[in-house]
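Teaching note: in complex prediction, the entire set of molecules is handled at once rather than each chain in isolation. The prompt given to students was simply: 'Predict the structure of this complex.' The entities are:
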Amino acid sequence: MLKGHQSWEFASRPVILSSAAVGGPFEAEGPLAEDFDLLHGDTLMKQKSWEQAEKVLLEEACDKALEKAGISKEHINFFLGGDLMNQIISSSFAARTLAAPYLGLFGACSTSMEGLALASLLVDKQSADYALAGTCSHNSSAEKQYRYPTEYGAQKPPTAQWTVTAGGAAVVGRNDGTRNRLHVTSATIGRVVDMGLTDPFNMGAAMAPAAFHTIEAHFRDRQLPYDTYDLVITGDLGRVGHSILCDLFQRHGINIPLDTYQDAGILIYGDNPGVWSGGSGCGCSAAVTYGHLLKKMRQGAWQKILVVATGALLSPLTFQQGESIPCIAHAVSIEA
Amino acid sequence: MLKGHQSWEFASRPVILSSAAVGGPFEAEGPLAEDFDLLHGDTLMKQKSWEQAEKVLLEEACDKALEKAGISKEHINFFLGGDLMNQIISSSFAARTLAAPYLGLFGACSTSMEGLALASLLVDKQSADYALAGTCSHNSSAEKQYRYPTEYGAQKPPTAQWTVTAGGAAVVGRNDGTRNRLHVTSATIGRVVDMGLTDPFNMGAAMAPAAFHTIEAHFRDRQLPYDTYDLVITGDLGRVGHSILCDLFQRHGINIPLDTYQDAGILIYGDNPGVWSGGSGCGCSAAVTYGHLLKKMRQGAWQKILVVATGALLSPLTFQQGESIPCIAHAVSIEA
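The expected output is the structure of the full assembly:
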C-alpha cells in the first residue's frame, strides 16, 4: 500500500450474494416502498420499546438476506454490524440472535459502508467464506436519544434531517465465477474531517466535506477518471449537503457528471416536505443501497456505482460541551 | 475458512513495532505503575471535562506509540479505535487529531483486541503497511455515563469492578525479518454469549462464559494443545469472573495450566480492596497488554501469550428495559 493511500481494491471481486431492506410505516409511504423486502405498519413492530423495534429491523434484514442467499446463519463466519444507539445495542443484541462471530462497528451513518468494506475485505482475503454486514436506525429511538422528547413538538429548521426507520443487510461471499452477479470491487476508508460546524440540525453541511475528501481520495488512489461510475451516491447528506457537495466538486475540479450524483437521504422520501432536508441514520444508506440500488443494478439500470456513506461522529454530550462535529465517509464500489 | 471457524492465522506474522500506555493518578499507585509511559497526577489532565481527559489518554497513547516506533502519523494507513463512551467520542475525536483513515469499533472492553486483531489482519493481508490500534477508558466519565453521580457515594457490591483510567495503543507493521520482535500470530473473533445474567454490578460473572467460548474456539480452530501459551490473560473479568472461568475450564476439560492463567483486571490494581473485584474498561486490557505484558515479553518473561479481551455489550437503557447482558470476547496471540 502506498503512503497516504486509503483504498482497498478487491482483486477477487467478492460477490453480494443477497441483500435485504426492512422499513417502517413512514418508509412504506415513500417512493422506494416497493424496494423493501418487508414493511411494518407501526413503529413498535410488536415490541415493547422503540429500541427493541430497531433491533427487530436489523434482525429481519439479516434473516431476509440469509434466506435470499439460501444459506443458514451457521454458515456466516462474521457479522459486521453497527447502529446509532449508545453502545450499539441494536447490533449487539441482533448479534446475540444470529450467534455468529461479531465485529461491532461505529461510524454513525457511515457504518453501513464501513461494514460492507470490511466484510468484502474479509472475503477477498479468504479470511471469511461468508460475511454478513448490516445496520439499522429507528426514528423514535434516535429522537429519544439525541433530541427532545417528541411530545414537546419541538420545531426543527429546514436543514434538519429525518432519521429513517429501517434496517439493511447484505451477505458477501466468494466469487466463484457465476455470471450476472454484483461484485464489490473496492473500498475507500475515510479520515475524520471537521470544518468547525457545531449545529446538530445541519448535519448535511457538516458531513459534505467528509464525503468530498473520501470521494477525492477514492478517485486519486485508484487513478480513475471522474466519469467512471454510472452513479455516485452519498448517504445521507440530504438536500443541503448534496448542494454543498456539488459546489465542492465544482470548486476543486472534481468533474463527476452532476447528473450521475444522487443522495440516499433525498431518494428515500422524495420531495416530502415533512422530512426537511431529507432522510438520515444508519438505516438510510443501508436500506437505499441494499433495497433500492442493488435491485436497480440487478435490473440493469447501472453497471458501476460508488456508495459513499457519511457519518457525523458527535454525541449529545460533545454538543453540550461546545465541540464541533467530526465527520467521516466510507466509500464502496459495486459493479455488475 | 472451515465452516464454523472463527480464527485467523497471520501467516506473515505482523510485528508490533511499538506500544504505549498512559494512565491516571489511581493507576500510578498500582503495582503496574512502572509499565506506563506516562502517568497523570490528576483525573482532568488539564482538560475541562472527564470526557476530554479520556480523549487525551488515547491521543497520548497513540503519540507515544508512534514516537517509539519512529514513524509519523502520516505513515499510518488506518487507525482502529473504540471506547465506552456513547458514540465512541473519545476515539472519533482522537481520530480527528490523528487525521488517519479511521475504522471506529465497539465491543465494550473487548474493543482493545478487536482493534489489534483487525489491525494485524490488515497488515498481514497487505491491506495496510502500518495500522494503529488503540482504546481508552476513564473512571469518572464511565461512572457518569453508566451509573449514579459519584457525589451520591452509592455503595457497590464486592462483585463490582473499577473502570480503569488509561489509554493504550500499538503500532502494527510488516514483518521484515528483523529479529527480537513481537509478532501477532493469530486472532479469534468471539460470538455473543448471554447466559441470562442481568446484574451490571457483576460483569465478571456475565463475561466469563464469553471468554470461555472464545478460548475454547481458539484452541479448537488452531488445533493447539492447551499448554501452548506461557500466559493466557483475560481482560477484564476481575476476581469473580476469573474464578468462574477457572471452574468452567475444569468442568469442560479445557486443561489450561491454571498457573498460566491471569486476568488484566486483577493485575492492574493488585489486591487493593477499593476496586472490589478488580479493574475494567477498554483502557484496562489495553494498558495492561500494551504497557505491562509486552514489556515483560520484551524482557523475556514469556514467549507466547494469548490476550482475551472481554466485553459486556449492555447499555444503561437495556438494563432499564430488563434485558440480560450480552457478552463477547476476542483473543489475539502474541509471540516473541
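Point out the following to students. The longest strand of chain A covers residues 15-23. Chain A touches chain B through 60 residues (CB under 8 Å).
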